[in-house]
């Protein structure tokens, strides 16, 4: 079963959820603000995704901007970045869709279509 990690008030997350429902996808939903991803989960998803760790950050979020992370991230270690992401779910790019063998960050319909249609 898919894991759908989102912030329910986020319009992109709402769009992604509606899309999953229309496709009849089975998923377990988790509110990222109520239940932050752990460092262990983030390490696993990062390894599985094949993406740069920076792509797990919500770069358009207010918290990201207020913490001036655009300037700080390039000098941070992987461990520091993972700890930061685990400290506050609002720093994590969402929605996250985690399935067997893949992790998708953000909602790009074409990318999701490719993965979900294989299930």
Write structural notes for this entry.
With about 120 residues, the protein is an alpha+beta fold. The protein has helices at about 10-25, 40-50, 60-65, 70, 80-85, 110-115; strands at about 1-5, 25-30, 95-100, 100-105. About 45% of the residues lie in helices and about 15% in strands. Strands 2-1-3-4 form a four-stranded mixed β-sheet, with helices on both faces. Strand 1, helix 1 (about 10-25) and strand 2 form a beta-alpha-beta unit. The longest helix is centred in the first third of the chain and has 13 residues, at about 10-25. The model has no long low-confidence stretch (mean pLDDT about 95).
Walk me through the topology.
Layout: E1 2-6, H1 11-23, E2 27-31, H2 39-49, H3 62-66, H4 69-72, H5 78-87, E3 96-99, E4 102-105, H6 109-116
Parallel strand pairs: 1-2
Antiparallel strand pairs: 1-3, 3-4
H/E element order = EHEHHHHEEH
Distance linking N and C termini: 9 Å
Q: Approximately how much helix is present in the residues? A: 40-55%
Q: Numbering strands along the chain, what is their spatial order in the largest sheet?
A: 2-1-3-4
Mean pLDDT, all residues = 95
Structural class: alpha+beta
């Amino acid at each position: 079963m898919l894991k759908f990690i989102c912030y329910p008030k986020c319009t992109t997350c709402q769009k992604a959820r509606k899309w999953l429902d229309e496709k009849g996808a089975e998923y377990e939903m988790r509110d990222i603000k109520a239940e932050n991803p752990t460092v262990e989960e983030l390490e696993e998803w990062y390894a599985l995704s094949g993406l740069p760790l920076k792509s797990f950050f919500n770069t358009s979020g207010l918290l990201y901007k207020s913490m001036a992370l655009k300037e700080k991230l390039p000098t941070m270690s992987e461990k520091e970045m993972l700890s930061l992401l685990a400290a506050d779910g609002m720093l994590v790019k969402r929605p996250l869709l985690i399935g067997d063998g893949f992790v998708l960050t953000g909602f790009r319909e074409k990318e999701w279509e490719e993965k979900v249609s294989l299930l």
